[in-house]
Amino acid sequence: MFILARVILAIPMVFILLTVVFLLMRVAPGDPVSAALGARLSAGQLAQRRAAAGFDRPLIVQYGDYLGGVVTGNFGRTITDNRSITQVLVDNGGATLTLTVAALLVALIIGLPLGMWAARRRDKWDDVVIRLFGIATFAAPVFFVGLLLQLLFGKTLDWLPTSGAASPIVAPTVPEKTHILILDAALSGDWSAFDDVFRHLILPAVSLGLLVTGVLIRLSRVNVIQTLRSDYVEAARARGIREGAVVLRHALRNAMVPVITVTGLQVALLLGGAVLTEQTFNWPGVGNQLVGYLNSRDYTAVQGIITVFALVVVVVSLLIDIINALVDPRIRY
Amino acid sequence: MSAVPQQATAPGAPRIAVRDLRIWYGTGGAPVRAVDGVDLTINAGQTVALVGESGCGKTTLGRGILGMLPPSAAVDGEVVVDGVDLAHLPPRRLRAMRGLRIGLVFQEPMTRLDPLMRIGDHFDEVLRTHRPKMSRAERERESVAMLRSLGIPPSRIRQYPHEFSGGMRQRIMIGLALVLRPAVIVADEPTTALDVLVEAQIVEILAELRRNADCGLLLITHNLGIVAKAADRVAVMYAGHIVEEGEVDRVFSEPAHPYTRELLRSTISLDTSDLHYIPGSPPDLSAPLSGCLFHPRCPDAMRVCQSRDPGQTATAGGGRVSCWLHRLDELEPADREPLPDREISVADEA
Amino acid sequence: MSAIPAAEATPTPTGPAPSSAARPGRRFAALRSARGVPRALLLTGSGITLFFVLLAVFAPLIAPYGFDQYSANGQRFAKLAGPSAHHWFGTTVQSVDVLSRVVFGARTALEVVVLAVVFSIIIGVPLGLLSGYFGGLLDRILVLVMDALFAFPYLLLAIVIAFLLSDVVIGGGVVTTALAITVIYVPQYFRVVRASTLSAREATYVEAARAMGAPARTVISKYLFVNVVHSVPVIATLNAADAILTLAGLGFLGYGIQPTEAAEWGYDLQRAIADAGAGIWWTALYPGLAITVLVIALTLVGEGLNEVVNPSLRRARTRPVRLPARPGRGRGAQ
């Protein structure tokens, strides 16, 4: 019931987002085909391509087409290399998904414990150090952190690879099943391949993860400070509940509700950071593709990929609300 | 209460004895002497009401008994519960005593239950913490029995706090404090946040508790009606001191301390013809004070009250009072001279 | 890169401004009263920010060479030379002095950030005021659009805008980049200002003014603006920190300032990827540090201001007392 209501509420948001994307991509004068291919094709060929892609029709019709396409899962085709956006997602989505999920894990593993510790040690020296660390991880551009990690672990120590998602000799040996390389490597049972893929993931995931870590530290710190001061925590102490249990069962659990919500909002930060991380580590993800299409002035490809990113943001916020409803009985109905 | 007490305590035996308790708060300047030399004993099955104006140290005393004070507080004196002095217990052992030997019921029940936890789990948590050997089934049985005795259908044990009304939540809080049959329960203004009808229910439950359980109840309140209904004895607190203590009937009919008398006169009831209040306000507890602390506001103040502490004098019915009016025979005639009419600043109160 | 810190660090702007924030006099009193660690952090942040501002303003005097200068006295600088007495921070692959690029980069950053913040305020604050004051259909549409922009991955939004602007409309450069960044921050100012307008609108003195027939223009400019504008400095500072990162992100992807136009830290870092592969660290370290240190400093200022504006975030300090020894047992107890 709750889930259904929440899904219905998301529809206007999706509609507005799609409209914004469409308008953004079409405010530019000229048409996408000549922007992308103008230098390479003759006027006749261009007109033909325009007609084939439907760019000669009125804007409102194109808008309807676009919305209809999105509803049916068709995000259009690229102009420069004539791939469907769906194909781009199949080919490169797995890498971006792996990177963002791994980065989120890194952020959670580092950020939550540090934030909670800082909250318990409020205004002590370790709290100040952790807060400064949080600010620093957020302040350092993800590509700068990436470069430093490359210099340290890739060059000076020579422990980890710094480019791509797998070694060139390993990648072709992994059978494609899920289009998520690390899963495929694990499924193939070839541990040396999995090890190779995993080692390639570490530096990009840590770079991107540190970006979100700062947000998580701040977030969990503030919320745990609040719940530690709450009436029910004091009441639990008055019942003689052990301090460890008070902190874990009462303070942390309650602090998690807002933490989950805002972590969900970080998906926008994460996707933006992913584009930069993919550039830094030559990671074969959607962000890398996006930059490529931007450089070749392929408007429909950009439009399609941006649309997908926008939908991901909406879907994640939907998921977060559902998770929150599972955690917090007050939200359910 | 339907529950059978686990250790039988002879009726009338003291369950808690507070001796010369002092609780001072650090601020930046002079310490605030919130509780300054309090003695108080509560016997099994007895309810002692603690009354006084806001800011007189009632809540600090209640919290101090459990050792639930902010870090800036310093405690000194004895709080003996069943032979153990809580005031000098290391934190770990004090924690183990809370909930087990001594329970606390708070003023506002709405925010005191963990919103993410079912009611049953609250009970389960307390029982599991203090009775690790109890089986799950036993714990559940205890919780259900407790809820039933408080008039909450056991079927609601799997519900969350937000599904209960304020009065029900306060009953649950009382149940949580009571489920281990502690020696003492401190109830800090348990009805202040509730509406009148619910208040009556809670008072009924507290009165019931007095009749059936062998625990002592310290009922902190400023509602004298509740005192009359639910308490055996009453302790009147002023500026960190207990100025009078005795049986409720005696104190209400023949108040021995001028402050008690004025407090009773200030109560509004149906036959109140004109409103009475005590001019002035309680003293600043961080300022240096001498003599009887009430003397600046006392209509009966004498010269001696300014300079010398009256100590304690026994009253009829095993009570006591701190007032020179009860030790007149010890005074020189000059000491007994009334203080000249003073300007009692009412503006202070604004 | 994110729009979140501002919203997170400032509980006030999402709700009505507290009364203490409405009086500048009190704010400065609070500034003086800030103590200990928060005060130290605020002062450090302000100091570093000031240092970068001075770097930016006096860049031509401070930098040893020009931002695209690769030779001096007819002699070309060494390519990718490590730090030395002549080039404290080394040189790049194009033989440009890294120190000079870092110093001139501060100038670019300052220009873009100041423009972006000014644009955002010029657009966001009036929109928020109008939307909050008049309500109705305009308000609903604006809220929907702003929420959509706010939910969007902001770096992508900036990239797309920078891409469109530079491609077809006005070409690249400082103004283009500033405009791209502006689009990200307008929704924040809009939300905050709209929220405080909604609450200020109901305030007694505004109602009185309206009841006396003051035209909307007067009410908004005379009463609401003054009241609402106090929440702006905190967001502006935090947004400035964010804008530095976005600018660097754009530069890193090649959508910021063109390298011939000015020095830009993000662009330098992009060029440093290839150097890092060869183990050359100085082309990455110094511009990266400049970004990081400046963003940290601005964040400290923003959070410090926030704490000053919202005294509720501060904690009263208490010291434990020591009870004096007792004069014998008890004060006259039986």
UniProtKB/TrEMBL annotation, chain B:
Q: Which Pfam families match?
A: ABC_tran, oligo_HPY
Q: Where does this protein reside within or beyond the cell? A: Cell membrane
- List the membrane topology term(s): Peripheral membrane protein
Q: Which residues form the ABC transporter domain?
A: 18-264
**Which GO MF terms are attached to this record?**
ATP binding
Query: Which PROSITE patterns does its entry note?
Result: ABC_TRANSPORTER_1 (PS00211), ABC_TRANSPORTER_2 (PS50893)
| NCBIfam families xrefs | oligo_HPY (TIGR01727)
Q: What PANTHER family does the entry give? A: DIPEPTIDE TRANSPORT ATP-BINDING PROTEIN DPPD, OLIGOPEPTIDE TRANSPORT ATP-BINDING PROTEIN APPD
Q: What is this protein called?
A: ABC transporter ATP-binding protein
Species this protein is from: Rugosimonospora acidiphila
Automatic annotation (TrEMBL), chain C:
**Residue span of region Disordered:** 1-24
Q: Pfam families this protein is in? A: BPD_transp_1, OppC_N
Q: Give the subcellular location.
A: Cell membrane
The highest taxon in the source lineage is Bacteria
Please give the SUPFAM superfamilies that the UniProt record associates with this protein: MetI-like (SSF161098)
Please give the chief subcellular localization of this protein: membrane
InterPro entries registered for this protein in UniProt: BP-dependent_transpt_permease, MetI-like, MetI-like_sf, OppC_N
Q: Which residues form a coiled coil?
A: none
Q: How does it sit in the membrane?
A: Multi-pass membrane protein
Q: Which family does it belong to?
A: Belongs to the binding-protein-dependent transport system permease family.
What this protein is called in its record is ABC transporter permease
Organism whose genome encodes this protein: Rugosimonospora acidiphila
Question: Lineage in the entry?
Answer: Bacteria, Bacillati, Actinomycetota, Actinomycetes, Micromonosporales
